[in-house]
Task: inverse folding
């Protein structure tokens, strides 16, 4: 029985997500595991693409092959597909977002590191605010001051419905968009982190010399399954975040 | 009498915490029903469209993700309420 209560002794959420500073303690620039992983993710992406583009062979192989495939995927499936072929110059920005988020999500699955940075609100919030600001700036650049009326009053709507629709559009475009962009990334990664922790805690609690050990394969299998699922989520969330960024920016470019 | 009152107060506090947890769980569960159905409809119809016109698959996929993003917003708000009730 003690084993079972041990298994149910789930650590409080603060133990899973809050890490103490180990550099510059207490100051605003304190560095903890999350900050270190963020920097690591950024460095990893830069190093990989530097290695891929260092010696550009006509017939690509190894890292160059993978890098070219990845960039082509972003350019073809996200940028050209959503924003059209004339917006190809957005590829570097969208690709940076995609690979940064992907690297951070994958670092969250590497043993020992095992902390998805996006399971803290800070980075998703920054990325969403960046998209939001860019969306507004691009709108003003391409449509001038007509951007706001163009967004709030879609054409072909009865006059009587205009005030209601303007209110809904205001809410959905300028408030709900960045908010959901942020929470989607955050919630998916945090839920995955908690799910993994649950099965790891259960597995380690059942790892005992007792008859209860017969139940051990179950949480172990689930932990492996959830890890594979999280791999899918890592890719999917990076993809969705960058595709939505592309959609929002292209809507600002072309109006409704 | 005072002891009894204190005990009752404590129990009421525990009850409040329990109710909060129940409310948070129920709130998230209820918030997830609609978006679940909605996302199912969106993706199902997108697959229909892709099967009918494979050459339009790219456009359909993009629009599908937009639709999912709108439907999912409600579930995400439910999740935020859950977090606020449980941990804030």
Result:
């Amino acid at each position: 029985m003690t084993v079972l209560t041990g298994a149910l002794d789930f650590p409080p959420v603060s133990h899973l997500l809050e890490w103490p500073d180990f550099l510059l303690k207490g100051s605003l620039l304190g560095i903890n595991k999350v900050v270190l992983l963020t920097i690591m993710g950024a460095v990893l992406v830069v190093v990989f693409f530097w290695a891929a583009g260092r010696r550009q062979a006509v017939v690509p192989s190894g890292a160059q092959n993978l890098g070219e495939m990845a960039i082509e995927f972003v350019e073809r499936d996200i940028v050209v597909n959503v924003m059209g072929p004339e917006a190809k110059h957005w590829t570097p920005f969208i690709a940076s977002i995609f690979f940064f988020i992907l690297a951070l999500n994958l670092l969250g699955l590497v043993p020992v590191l095992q902390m998805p940075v996006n399971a803290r609100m800070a980075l998703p919030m920054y990325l969403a605010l960046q998209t939001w600001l860019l969306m507004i700036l691009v709108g003003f650049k391409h449509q001038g001051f007509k951007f706001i009326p163009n967004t709030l009053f879609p054409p072909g709507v009865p006059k009587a419905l205009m005030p209601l629709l303007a209110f809904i559009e205001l809410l959905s475009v300028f408030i709900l968009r960045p908010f959901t962009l942020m929470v989607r990334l955050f919630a998916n990664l945090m839920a995955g982190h908690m799910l993994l922790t649950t099965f790891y805690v259960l597995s380690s609690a059942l790892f005992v010399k007792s008859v209860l050990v017969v139940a051990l394969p179950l949480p172990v299998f689930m932990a492996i399954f959830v890890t594979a699922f999280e791999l899918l989520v890592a890719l999917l969330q990076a993809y969705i975040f960058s595709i939505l960024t592309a959609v929002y920016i292209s809507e600002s470019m072309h109006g409704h | 009498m005072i002891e009894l009152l204190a005990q009752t107060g404590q129990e009421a506090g525990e009850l409040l915490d329990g109710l909060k947890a129940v409310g948070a769980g129920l709130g998230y569960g209820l918030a997830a029903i609609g978006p679940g159905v909605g996302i199912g409809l969106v993706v199902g119809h997108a697959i229909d469209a892709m099967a009918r016109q494979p050459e339009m698959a790219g456009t359909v996929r993009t629009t599908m993700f937009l639709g999912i993003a709108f439907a999912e917003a409600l579930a995400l708000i439910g999740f935020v309420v859950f977090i606020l009730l449980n941990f804030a």
Observations:
- The two ends of chain A are 62 Å apart (CA to CA).
- Residues 57 and 141 of chain A are 39 Å apart (CA to CA).
- Residues 2-254 of chain A form one domain.
